[in-house]
Amino acid sequence: MTAKPPLFQFDNSYARDLQGFYVAWEGAKVPAPELVLFNRELAEELGLEADALQTAEGAAVFAGAVQPDGASPLAQVYAGHQFGGFSPQLGDGRALLVGEVIDRNGKRRDIHLKGSGPTPFSRGGDGKAVLGPVLREYILGEAMHALKIPTTRALAAVTTGEMVHREGPKPGAVLTRVAASHLRVGTFQFFAARGQTDKVRQLADYAIFRHDPDLSGKDGRYLGLFSRVIERQAELMASWMLAGFIHGVMNTDNTTISGETIDYGPCAFLEAYDPATVFSSIDHGGRYAFGRQPSIMQWNLARLAEALLALFEPDNLDKAVDLASTELGRFPDLYRQHWLHGMRGKLGLTREVDGDQDLFEDLLSLMQQQKVDYTLLFRHLGDAAIGDPEKARRLFVDPTSLDPWLTRWQDRLSAEDLSPRLAKEQMDTANPLYIPRNHKVEEALAAAEAGDYAPAVSLLEVLKHPFTEQQDREAYAQPAPDSFGPYRTFCGT
Ligand code: AMP
Ligand code: MG
């Protein structure tokens, strides 16, 4: 009899190269692991045997209850600024890095479990996750991926057969998360806060190995790394703002070095456009409101600069501060350029023209004044580009208020080289018809908690092709009915 091939071909660089940056740890045993969602397409991208994972053994592995061959499970240590206050000791309190695989494109990806039981970093928490938030992270992350936004992804969701106490008993669950890495701004902060410069340097070299290997061994590589993180995060913030995504907990421990979106907690998409929108029940001061996200990211990157400062210019702190400030000062303009580029795409424009920013901001103010659905308006402007503005106009309480702006935009469009038909085509690849509508997400989570996964599966199917109009899927494109009321999200931890 031939031996079964291992489920994963692990190559665990974090465990191997970064001793002292984690605690080796295993997941908790659970009564009855059951695979409830599995991402076959991602499994294939990772070079995994999907059939072998959709088994009882796979479910036990995804629950953290069984260690697959070649795994070196560990809890990573990190710190972080949470809502502006520094917590020097965080870490994977309910998560494990199981190992790393090299995907079909040669990229190294972390296989990570969230909800796999307590660790030495649990700080009194139970180390568990429950089904609703696990599915929310699964759905939102996959939606972001389909929207072409860099993100961690979901490989699997399992229920554990255990009830976990939250605001009452809830079904326990574990999410398998795939990421370019789990290096966070807070990982650097942990060692910097303890004055462990050698460890900060070791971590920075590891980050370069993971994300910027072209900088490896070069002089000035640490400033180079900082500069790359700024560039990735400026682009990421523009993509969130262009899509109407609100993360909700932009703490530095939830801010990646890779530039991927991570940690889908109380996140949600905007419906009526308003930069002051906050969904999270714990964000009392509106620190992480929609419109504040780019400047919060710059604040988070300033914390990264502080953590890396000793590496920039080891014998000259003043010069290190100058170098870091100059880099950080690039963020607003980098962000703005990405945002302007994205807005041009959303409005069928290709050339850069003075006054573009005003044109875009004037549209946003109109939307804000009349509480217009952000996603639908951009989608319907595609029809306006080919001479049918009615659907866009009807989104306004007073449709005539859009007309002067439409004329300005039409003038701007007609000065482009694109035909109206091509402009609409470009717009339809930038303006999704389907986003994870809050009421649809809640409906899917409630059904799953009652044992029916069909709505979650249907929602995931629709969100896989957000730019393509799908038959009989009109309901997925609509904003929440008034009866849904104001939306509130919870961390669910
Ligand atoms: P998050 O809000 O998911 O970004 O988590 C912030 C910190 O709290 C991280 O260190 C988590 O590991 C930890 N944490 C969140 N929920 C739990 C839990 N149920 N048990 C233990 N630690 C947790
Ligand atoms: Mg987190």
Measured between the Cα atoms of the first and last residue, the distance is: 46 Å
**Biggest sheet record:** 6 strands, antiparallel
Low-confidence stretches: none
Question: For the CA atoms, what is the radius of gyration?
Answer: 23 Å
Beta-strand residue fraction = 5-15%
Quaternary state of the chains: single chain
The best one-word shape is globular
Q: Roughly how much helix do the residues carry, as a percent range?
A: 40-55%
Q: Could you say which small molecules are bound to this protein?
A: adenosine monophosphate, magnesium ion
Q: How many strand segments?
A: 12
Mean pLDDT equals 97
> Count of DSSP helices?
19
Helix and strand composition category: alpha+beta
Question: What's a quick, concise take on this entry?
Answer:
This protein is an alpha+beta fold and 493 residues long.
Task: Describe this protein's structure.
The chain has 493 residues and is α+β, with helices and mostly antiparallel strands. Among the domains are: 13-182, no CATH class; 186-338, no CATH class. Helix content is 43%, strand content 13%. A hairpin with a 2-residue loop joins strand 4 (80-82) and strand 5. It is globular. Magnesium ion (MG) is lined by residues 253-254, 263.
